[in-house]
Amino acid sequence: MSLYTYLLIAAIMFTVGAYGIITQRSGIKILMCIELMLNSANLNLVAFSSFNNNSTGQVFALFSIAIAAAEAAIGFAILVALFRVRDTINLDNINILRW
Amino acid sequence: MNYALLAPEILLTILALVVILLGLLVSDRSKNVLGYLSAAGLIASLVYIIGTKGEGSLFYNAIVVDPLSQIFKLIFIIVSLLAVIASISYFKDNRNQDEYYALLLLATVGMMVVASANDLIALFVGFELASMSTYVLAGFEKKNPASLEAGLKYFIIGSLSSALMLFGMSLVYGITGSTNIPAIVEYFRINPTAAITTLNVIALIFLVAGFAFKMALVPFHMWAPDTYEGSPTVVSALLAAGSKKMGFVAAFRVLVLALVAIRIDVQMAFAILAVITMTYGNIVAISQRSIKRMLAYSSIAQAGYISLAFVVTTQLSISGGILLALGHALMKGGAFIAVAVVGYMVLSDNKNARNTDDLENFAGLGKRAPITAFSLFIFFLALAGIPPSAGFIGKFVLFYSVTVEAVRQASTWLLLVVIIAILNSALSIYYYARVIRYMYVLPPTGEKIKEPAPYVIAIVLAVIGTIGIGLYPEPFIRWAMDAARVLGVS
């Protein structure tokens, strides 16, 4: 496969994730979409790294995988805390703050 | 390697871990001490940064220490110090205080790493350290639905922006084959034709969007008012005054260097972004009843002024941007803490009060809490840009630099941008004056209260900083000029 195939797949993953964040109303689904976007960037990094014979990209991808895991943990923690108070994680019902 | 350059970061990281560890060992009642411990650590870092003017690079040039990084570290530490001092009162007798202070210190370390980052990996890790700590801080009152909602909104938008930024960074890495910022700039200098490809423009757009979310520029601002309103007020101070500046230092390091190197003409795009941001922020701020929300929109407007620095990218304009960022950190941090005092006052009248930052609660504040009211008065005048204050110095240097550039390029529209910015400053006086009228003209609705000492100390420190920079701006202007010189602009 050529570099462009990987870039295309990454771009599609990124778009799917962005579309999901805009349209989905469930907190869990939004977290999944965020993971999708972060991983598309990782795919980009690893593809560039492998095709350019340069290992920096893989190091960057490792860092970003670890960070994505921490980010997901924090997201779930906030959702659990919210569920305890409001009994819902549907974003349509989470609208106290508005002008 | 000279680890002494990183002494403040190392000290604060160790302190954060010590605070968490002590939180496990001591009883709930003695956790109030942790606030004083954190404040002491921050003061030590502050003294170290002001006292030593070290320069150098570490970790294979991934971290640099130079005037630019040091002046932004100064901003971050001052803001976090103000927040910690105010939190001693705000989170008094809270049994989760240990986690609060540890997260606050880690957020500060993250911002400091961003200020020093000379490599996209370090930049990303620092960004995420600061962001993740502040997501939790924004939702820290876990029984309060508004705080959790603020945390969730901030989390979703924040991770979206980091995903955009990471995607942009991956493209930059793909184009240049390096993550080191000077190496990237060098690549574009050697291959000027490589600079203007579609992929490059896409990468630039992703990076700008990622940073603009943190800076809360319109149209990437929608999280800011919600988050600042819902978060605990001292955390709003940290977010508005500190976390926002993190976006600016990253943008200065990456965008300014890149723009100077690739010479794409994006002046117009940044000018439009800046003008829309300041106008939108000021106009929407007028109609707000919640003071925290009003301050949030006013800080969007201030971000608009600061981003004028990207429009002309001269040494003078960037140092103006840095000065305004420093001034804004003091003024906005102080103003949010003053709002926290009002919240304390309302809650001591009525334990179940809601919307403690409503405009009505500011009626007669001049009689009820004289120190807070007078300081808030000074912060508002400073935010509006009235001399002698840090806000005036920053705005003056910034607007002057754009005017100079407009005259040099004989460009009418740049002059128009300056005029719009000055009119915006005048407009902002309207909504600040409304609050001042409530504080001093309307009759008080309750008894005079005793303002808790930690709040008073934090507010008075912010006032001294605001007025001090206004009266004696010379060393700060010189420092900011040195900082701008690092970026290689003339």
In words, what does this structure look like?
The complex is a heterodimer of chains A (99) and B (490). In chain A, 78% of the residues lie in helices and 0% in strands. Chain A has a single domain (3-93), classed as Helix Hairpins. Chain A has helices spanning 3-23, 27-51, 56-86. Chain A has 99 residues and is mostly helical. Chain B has a domain at 265-490. Chain B has helices spanning 7-25, 33-51, 67-90, 97-116, 120-138, 145-176, 181-190, 198-215, 223-230, 233-262, 267-286, 291-306, 308-312, 315-349, 365-368, 370-384, 390-409, 412-440, 453-471, 474-486; strands spanning 56-58, 63-65. In chain B, a hairpin with a 4-residue loop joins strand 1 and strand 2. With 490 residues, chain B is mainly alpha-helical. In chain B, 77% of the residues lie in helices and 1% in strands. In chain B, helix 8 (198-215) runs antiparallel to helix 10 (233-262). Chain B has a two-stranded antiparallel sheet. Chain B is built from 20 helices and two strands. The radius of gyration of chain B is 21 Å and the shape is globular. The model of chain B has no long low-confidence stretch (mean pLDDT 88). The relative contact order of chain B is 0.10. The chains are: A mainly alpha (99), B mainly alpha (490). At the A-B interface, helix 1, helix 2 and helix 3 of A face helix 5, helix 6 and helix 9 of B.
The residue fraction in helices of chain B comes out at over 70%
Oligomer: heterodimer
Kindly estimate the percentage of residues of chain A that lie in beta strands according to DSSP.
Answer: under 5%
Supply Rg of chain B: 21 Å
Beta-strand percentage of chain B?
under 5%
Number of strands of chain A: 0
Terminal-residue CA separation of chain A: 51 Å
Shape of chain B: globular
Average predicted local confidence, pLDDT of chain A = 89
Structural class of chain B: mainly alpha
What's the helical proportion of residues of chain A? Answer: over 70%
What is the CATH architecture annotation of chain A? Orthogonal Bundle
- Separation of termini of chain B? 31 Å
CATH class annotation of chain A: Mainly Alpha
Structure class of chain A = mainly alpha
Q: Supply the number of helical segments of chain B.
A: 20
Q: Mean pLDDT score of chain B, rounded?
A: 88
Output the number of helix runs of chain A: 3
H/E element order of chain A:
HHH
Unreliable parts of chain B: none
